[in-house]
Amino acid sequence: MAFLRSVPLSESGPLVRGDRVWLRVPQMSDYAEWAQLRGMSQEFLRPWEPEWSYDELTRSAYRRRLRHYQRDMRDGVGYAFFLLRNGDNKLLGGATLTNARRGVSQSISIGYWVGAPYSRQGYMTAALRILVPFVFDTLGFHRLEAACLPTNEASRRLLESCGFLHEGLARKYLKINGLWQDHLLYAAIDDNLRS
């Protein structure tokens, strides 16, 4: 396997399509829908995310976020996606691939969120089932890592249903909701999913 892969891009970045959902790079034109969904989901997301900045939902903060995403994609170290429903293209959530390590590691980490109105409806499962092959087949990684809070039963079930295996516990791993918290570590390996 080559250590670097070119990523097929639309005019704005990679597209990943599935039967129920599709993923694409966030655009400035998504701001109003994103801000509304994140705003109405703030209490739902709070236990699972880093503390939001005072200006989290402002247009300027969103613009900075997009610049960061574009820089990471250009440098091949990360890819951000919005999750949209097929048919009406409704924004449901998002996923980010971050901390890409090439060379002998060939690994990348995934994080994801879904808006409160769309939770527990199988949308994120559908998203991961198309995103995982994209990570291995298109981006050329060997290992996809994820972490979740031990109390996040829905996220644990999601990862396990999509072929991730529990590998251990990282103590005080990420600062979530203002506190350094332990996380369960999961990984999907290209070879395991193909056997």
Structure description:
It is a single chain. The protein is α+β, with helices and mostly antiparallel strands. It has a domain at 15-145: Gcn5-related N-acetyltransferase (GNAT) (Aminopeptidase), CATH 3.40.630. 31% of the residues lie in helices and 32% in strands. It has 6 helices and 8 strands, in the order E-E-H-H-H-E-E-E-H-E-H-E-E-H. The protein has an 8-stranded mixed beta sheet with strand order 1-2-3-4-5-6-8-7, with helices on both faces. Strand 3 and strand 4 (91-101) form a beta hairpin. It is globular, with a radius of gyration of 16 Å. Mean pLDDT is 92; it is low at 1-9.
The tally of strands reads: 8
Q: Quickly give the structural class.
A: alpha+beta
State the separation between the terminal residues, measured CA to CA.
17 Å
Number of helix segments?
6
Which strand-content bin applies to the residues? Answer: 25-35%
- What is the CATH homology-level superfamily of the domain at 15-145? Gcn5-related N-acetyltransferase (GNAT)
Tell me, briefly, the overall form: globular
The side-by-side strand order for the widest beta sheet comes to: 1-2-3-4-5-6-8-7
Task: Report the sheet with the most strands, covering strand number, pairing sense and barrel closure.
Answer: 8 strands, mixed
User: For the residues shown, what is the average pLDDT?
Assistant: 92
The low-pLDDT segments are: 1-9
The gyration radius over C-alpha positions equals: 16 Å
CATH architecture of the domain at 15-145: 3-Layer(aba) Sandwich
